[in-house]
Design a protein that fits this description.
Length: about 130
Amino acid sequence: MIVCTGKVLLEAFPLKANLTPKQQRFIDEYLTDLNATQAAIRAGYSEKTAGQVGFENLKKPQIAAAVSKAKRERSEVTKIDAEWVLKQAVEVHRRAMQEVKPIRNPKTGKQLYDDVACPRLVVQRLS
């Protein structure tokens, strides 16, 4: 059994070696949404067997190495990794938990709601 450990796997199985055009298409499609079944369908495999084919493809060392390398390259280019995603999720949570103060009509004192008065309020503030 071969375990995908990044560099070791890449050295053991050169990329593009023994990959069919359909397998390369599967890799490209898999990287779109990380859904092996849908990637297999989009790559041209039968819908009836797409789930099994996707699962089997991801277990093949050459395909696993190519997917691993592509993910790593994408992460380096975008500077987005699991740590960045987690930090962003925490920041969004903190912002969502902040106290929200209602906006009131300066003339009547009644609370204004986004779906009713926000555009007028913006125009009033800009005037």
